[in-house]
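Much of what follows relies on a compact textual record of a protein's fold. A record is reproduced here so that you can trace the correspondence yourselves:

. . .
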Amino acid sequence: MARKKLTIEEKSIWPDARKMLAKAERDGVETAWDRLEVQTPHCKFCELGTTCRNCVMGPCRISEKMPRGVCGADADVVVARNFGRFIAGGSAGHSDHGRDLIEVLEAIVEGATDDYKIKDAAKLMRIAGELGVATKGRRLMKVAADLLDVFYGDFGSRKKELSFMCRVPAKRKAVWKKLGMTPRGVDREIAEMMHRTHMGCDNDAPNTLIHAARTALADGWAGSMIGTELSDVIFGTPTPRTAKVNLGVISKDKVNVLVHGHNPVVSEMIVAAAQDPKLLARAKKAGATGINVAGLCCTGNEILARQGIPMAGNHLMTELAIVTGAVEAIVVDYQCIMPSLVPAAGCYHTKFITTANKAKFTGAIHFDVRPETALAQAREIIGIAVDGFSKRDPKRVEIPVEPVEIMTGFSNEAILSALGGSLTPLLEAVKAGKVRGFVAIVGCNNPKFQQDSCNVGLAKALIEKDIMVLVTGCVTTAAGKAGLLMPDSISQAGPGLKEVCGALGIPPVLHMGSCVDNSRILQLCALIANELGVDISDLPVGASSPEWYSEKAAAIGLYAVACGIYTHLGLPPNILGSKTVTDLALNGLEGLVGATFAVEPDPIKAADLLDQRISSKRKGLGLSA
């Protein structure tokens, strides 16, 4: 049965989205919701995870009538194979992001670039010391060179465990060792996942899933964590600041450049180039009052947290940002960039510009941005945008709303600083029941849901229960547009959380960065567990991705569960065709790693599930529920 046609109000909760959806219809611009409508009903075999294309004896479809593929694989094997490869894809995405940051640091160390600097030398020295690199009396660049070797080693095959395993609580490490789940190297685990799922290799579904968890852990504790830590080192560690969010940050009077993707290596240079006096003069000569840079998705989160650059929108706002008719250029790096943005840009004067050879788009203007030439290339890109301003059609411009303020920049260092350098005040508030626990809401948009209804609904329901919420990625924009990222939103929180946040001058929902920065949340959980002398699975914490869609989100969810964090999903991955795999995900992992997945599309019911989990963990620690 085909999916029913949704009204504009059913597609999104946001005024800016609704106005642009109406304009998209008038302007003849296709959106993700239009394509979802014609793509449904989806293939049931694919939804269940029971179709296999891993060899050309097939493709095979597994069902009650056809219980085995040509090779003899049953539903359990096929579903586990597919899910393992899904996790490998997600882990590769975030981890390759981390590798790019290592390469930028290498260019700095070797003197191959003047465009990038080490902005937080103290953090580099602190990380180096933590990982066993000698620092006393040594020059910064010598230490950085040794740290490079450590991080490159984390991607290889010669280590028995990742460097940042030093941050993992001893009890958690023991769990992984017993299960054969200890992550050794990013590329090693991903390659082994692909090997295991080749025909004729791993044909025991639970065994395949154990390695899927190992692969995800390599992402969380190496690829993503390296990406986060080196971004702080090179671009600066985020500190609290205010900024603005929604499509209202696009300016009628300025040259508008939107940066989109995930890696700050390019977006930081675009921000710098937009401040070039010659380009600003050129923009004014073209009739603009200046140059305005705004973010989309996670690269937007990166420059939001570090520089206060405004956020135009999250995943499902990317097409709609173009529909304003006021965007001169969208500059992208990689991940979560819909190919539809190229034809959407073609409906207006907007230039679509790619910057990574691993993410080319047919029809785009391409720059191979490298550390050695990044700033010069960014200036050239801004020049293209400035030249496009005169081609804008004022009659097609519509900025739908006024922007709203948000507070951002809550790195772990910033949180500790706000607490006076110690976790003790926060833990005392937890023990007293004023902050009953913490839930990280992370991830994406999915047009199968009314945009951001679950993200916002869950956040509001949790803070009412005195549960502090941490957000990253696309949920940031949602929480910000809902007013939850400003201190005055404590009026919506429970009495205990309201008291604590009011005393600290912070919101009840804290923005911790982009989706790669979920590694900050892992580290924070480890810090708390180590402080209390318990495992992460003993803590009153949870995670959620209510509107997720991507391989990366699945990898994040799996490494959260493997770390002992109960994790809610708004819809299931494609595993329901296997009772073995489904039972393991929803129940069996609890006995293995101390946490499990829960699937619930209703945000209020999901909040109740997370609340029950937090209550049980509080009781386990001898605290009031």
The mean pLDDT is 97. DSSP finds 25 helices and 16 strands in the chain.
